[in-house]
Fold:
Amino acid sequence: MPPHERHDLLPGTLDLLVLRTLTLGRLHGYAIAQHIARTSGEVLRVEQGSLYPALERLQNQGWVTSKWGVSPTGRRARYYTITASGRARLGEKLSGYQRVAAAITRVLTTG
Amino acid sequence: MGWIDGLRHRLRPLLHPAAWQREHEEEVAHHLDLEAMQHDVRQARLAFGPATYYREETRRMTILGLLDVVRQDARYGWRALRRSPGFTLAVVASLALGIGANTAIFGLVYTVLLEPLPLPRPDRLVTVQRTDARAAARPAPGISGFTAAELAVLRQTAGVRLTGQTWVTIVPIEVAGQRDQSRVDLVDGAFFETLALRPVAGRLLTPADDQEGRPVVVISDLQWARWFNRSPAAIGSTITLGGASFTVVGVTPAAYHGLVFPGVFSLAAPLSVAPLLHQPDVRSPQGPGLLLAGRLADKTTLASATAALAAAFARCCADGQLVPLGTGIAPSGPARVALLGIGRGVGSGKMDLRTMFGRILLVLQAGVAIVLLIVCANVGNLLLARATARRRELAVRLSLGASRARLVRQLLTESAQLAVLGGVLGLLLAALLTGALIRGMPASLAIIADVFAFRLKPALLVFTLGISALCVLVFGMVPALRATRTDLVTPLKEGGDARAGVRTGLLDRSLVVAQVALALMLVSSAGLLGATLRNLRRVNGGFAATHVLFAWVDTRGTPREREGAVPLHEALLARVQHIGGIRAAAMSMIAPAVGGRMTSESFAVPGSDIQDGDTATITLDPVTPRYFEASGIGLSLGRDFTTADRAGAPRVAIISANLARRYFGDRNPLGQPVKLSDSVLMTVVGIAHDAKYLDLRGDADRMVYVPIAQAAATVWPFVVITARTTTPSTPVAGGLRREIQAFDPNLRLRTQGVEEALDDSLARERLAAGLAMVFGALAMGLAAVGLYGVVSYAVARRTREIGVRMALGARSGDVVWHVLRGSLVLVAFGVLLGAPLTFLAGKAMTAMLYGVGAHDPVLLIGAVLALTTVGAAASAIPAARAARVDPATALRLA
Structure:
């Protein structure tokens, strides 16, 4: 069992998180996972077993591309970049997500 | 472009599997290391999760994952097929039969009708066709000769690049002490450049070879293999042609068979070396006619090039009487020329293979397509039955969470495996069938047999693959969808539901009805073609159909070629007349049933008011005395030719009775003058009975016979000896051959009895009738199998019902009749559906039939009876099984 308590992501939100993270710039896989964990206050821990298949899927769609580069520590690493169609997709997904989230909140908070 | 990136990404694991694997491992390692810097290694690994799971998940996202699934399906499917060998065998065997027959026939259709010349841009290749005013509108593919002088003028035309070659020339060849005879094409220097043919070794002929008259020769791949064992040393070596030394400079590809279809290519030498080969100089006015070939310039249309060429021809050559004898074209009005596309080769004249076999091949293709439909119906039925039997298995998999799409894909994979097995076996079968068809070809076509040999051409593979895939999709999809639509509860209950197959019953019965209908169509078509063959065999052609022996004697390439036919016939016939068993022997240019060199001429009777104009063409046959006795044609009036009718003596002719009736009516033609296109008057000395020379279906040919001795200029260096024998002709053939070979071993010789010759002349009809009968029998057999399957299934399903009936007092006879009646109803529906189809098929074949109507009622009734009998026989086995049902056991089965 992983040491931290795990919070399951809503289906489809991992793509959203990854795409959003990549709008910050070129990142390798570990950095993506780190960023998501840090900014969520360690609540959302992306399992690597989900992260890389997700990256594979996003590349299949042409929303993300990757290139091998050298990391600050001098190691070879695969860096992921969001594409223009990926940004467009992120926009769509984001507004969709916000609608759903607002709706859920309304349901949960309405007496 | 997002999707292009995506596609490239998807294909990467397939294109660079090792790199893909390495990169992923490196990425994982990188991740783990970074993780380990924050936590300890153990924790890092734990955080990462199971590495193999991660790898599998990533792989599943890629194309490799899809391939894994296909591979899994294939393995599973293969196991499933091996578990039921009977089913697999039945499906694969029927597919192999259907696909094999279709591939074999398509191979012939492709070779004869569709295949382009193996040259670049064959659609731009043209020949120049000599036409007259009448034929100008629609030039027929055929032979037209042009002189070298005409070529020199015509090739100035813009928009088309012209070149030329001689028709067949045969010369003795000697390579390293071995002797034989070989065909040589004498070609214009620009010939190979214009065709854009590429050599497989050495170089091809160039304009310089032709201009300087170099004794060089290009050989075919076949000759290269035969004489030189495909050694590179062949290039530069010397061979002897017609006594002169020639240097081999190159080899043409195996696919090149010359411009004529169907053709044979052996050797090519420059036109200018003709005298070395004892041929007349092509540049002299007496030179042989050239076959012109050309290539249209890129932006030129056939019509504009034709217009330019016709104008050039009208300026230079149109007024000359340049149509060589024997071209089959009677000049009428000013000569004209037209260009004709030869992307699929130049047709070979009157006996053109495409004209002869085109229609029959298409009919046969339609026939085998129907066989394939029946096969597919059978396979569909088998798959349906199997799917029903597997409902429980599929229900279990569905309830365990397999998606329907996955199961459909699984079932389709199985069908695809069956189709691949059937397709591969079908290809083998097609090769065997093609071999058998080639062996059945008439001897006269033996020389071009190589053209038809079974080869795995891309077009053929695509065809086979296509029909196999079609079988899978059409007949695998329905059972697959149906089997997976099942609700989960019913099949899982032990015993299932006896009524579960009611809906399937309708579909498989419909398939059987369709099979019976299609089989009826094929069987009755086979009957029509069989009757046609029988009727043609009974036709009286006006000549002796037994006790006649033919021998073709060919002097080409020997010293006798120049002496002509006259000294040959006198010397040879004197010997042949005395062979035991020969009653009368004669020579002619053509003979009934076997044909020969056809020569058409225009015909006129001076002073006659009958003006047939262009249609007054007759067939000219130079013959020796006693020809009418030897051939059995006989004279109805007047006298035979005698040895007194020699060159220099008054010109005489014998005309056929139909010609006499047409031009002389009731008057006595004997002693009257007639005239051929060479405008020499001849006196009619006899009237011959009518005879059908080329076509047993048509009217008797209009013939003019002249003494060979007076027609030396027209006589070609090959003639037919017709010998009337007193005994059956086969034993006499040996004596005849020995006598002719003793006379001159260099003569080329072929003998054939008239029965065999008639058989050959009916090759097309035999092919049609034979194959149609095979296909009909196949269709009937397959329909019987289909019927058997459906009836057996019904009996098995209704065991309980039958048990109840028997318990209630039905006798076994009643049960048998009950089952038989069910299957006869199916047959009856099939016949009702098939009868209109049969009429349609008969109508489509009308042009091929002889002496039998397209809607022959007797044949139709026969076909119906045959199908009913076969259907009853096929259902007799399950019916008998039903009659043996033991009521007690059947009722306890519940």
